[in-house]
Amino acid sequence: MAFQIVINLIIAVMWMFLSESYTVPSLITGFLFGVLLLLLLRRFLPGGFYLTRVFKAIKLILIFFKEMVMSNIDMIKYIYSPRPIREPGIFEYPLELKTNWEITLLTSLISLTPGTLSIAISNDKTKLYIHAMNIESVDEEIKSIKETFEKGIMEVTR
Amino acid sequence: MNVKEIIEFIAALLMLIGAIMAMISAIGIIRFPDVYTRSHAGTKSSTLAVLLTLTGAFLHFAVEQGFYSVRLLLGIVFVFLTAPVAGHLITRAAYSAGVKMADSTVEDELKDVFENREEDKGK
């Protein structure tokens, strides 16, 4: 992915040199031509066209902001409900992600989404231990939410 | 009512909601039973509170004085990067130190793992 971005920037700079106008608009024009060229030549590049990944990353960020707002609405409900007892607990979540920074990203996302807080990662990096506010009703729902997160991260990184 | 006034109103509203979220987070820290549930409140609500307040301040200075403070945006990014990690570390340290969970706790799948880890260290 980084390789394709570098190629795109080189094409943009080449465009600036060819048209002999060293301004930001000509750089942007060259960049757009570079995107077009990479789109034509995407079969010869490793890992597919890179802008699709950029869009997936933007989509992940948008989903994340939505979850963030939802989690705070949930928090308000928990804090202002007159009944003090929920059913907190720690559950185990099997990880499919491999590299360290993917796992770090996932734990951060989990910590900021509704009713869950990551506590520990097992030594062999296959399990994540998550503290949940209400383990009875939310367990399955949480699992589905995390499948979307984990899938989103995988689509971005692989 | 022109665009400038509308944006100023949005900025003021964002800051107000941010302050309310910070207060809710503080109430949550008082009301919840144990360390783990408290750090739920501390991590999520206060992160959003800081985010909303800084966004409001950014909009205010952008409209009022035409000054685009990139430092505020960087502040938002850094808070987003560090707040969940801080929550993770505090709860993890609490668990390692053997802090009791609330009585209403249903399930604890981490317990066996930690006990096994202690045994491994003993050997």
What does this structure look like?
The complex is a heterodimer of chains A (158) and B (123). Helix content of chain A is 64%, strand content 11%. Chain A has helices at 2-19, 24-40, 50-80, 100-111, 135-157; strands at residues 89-94, 116-121, 127-132. Chain A has a 3-stranded antiparallel sheet, covered by helices on one side. In chain A, strand 2 (116-121) and strand 3 (127-132) form a beta hairpin. Chain A is elongated, with a radius of gyration of 22 Å. With 123 residues, chain B is mainly α. Chain B has 4 helices and 1 strand; from the N terminus they run αααβα. The mean pLDDT of chain B is 83. Strand 1 (89-94) of chain A pairs parallel with strand 1 (107-108) of chain B.
SSE topology sketch:
The complex is a heterodimer of chains A (158) and B (123).
Chain A: H1 2-19, H2 24-40, H3 50-80, E1 89-94, H4 100-111, E2 116-121, E3 127-132, H5 135-157
Antiparallel strand pairs in A: 1-3, 2-3
Chain B: H1 3-31, H2 35-64, H3 70-96, E1 107-108, H4 110-122
DSSP helical segment count of chain B: 4
Structural class of the secondary elements of chain B? mainly alpha
Detail the poorly predicted runs of chain B. Answer: none
Q: SS-based structural class of chain A?
A: mainly alpha
Biggest interface and residues each: A-B, 34 and 39 residues
SS field, number of helical segments of chain A = 5
The percent of residues in helical segments of chain A reads 55-70%
In helices, the fraction of residues of chain B equals over 70%
CA-atom Rg of chain A in angstroms: 22 Å
The general outline of chain B is: elongated
Residue share in β-strands of chain A: 5-15%
Number of E-type strands of chain B: 1
Distance between the termini of chain A: 10 Å
Count every beta strand of chain A, where a strand is a DSSP E run of 2 or more residues. Answer: 3
* Sheet with most strands of chain B: none
| Multimer state | heterodimer
Mean pLDDT of chain B: 83
Shape of chain A: elongated
Q: Kindly estimate the percentage of residues of chain B that lie in beta strands according to DSSP.
A: under 5%
Report low-confidence residues of chain A grouped into runs of 5 or more.
none
Mean pLDDT over the full residue set of chain A? 82
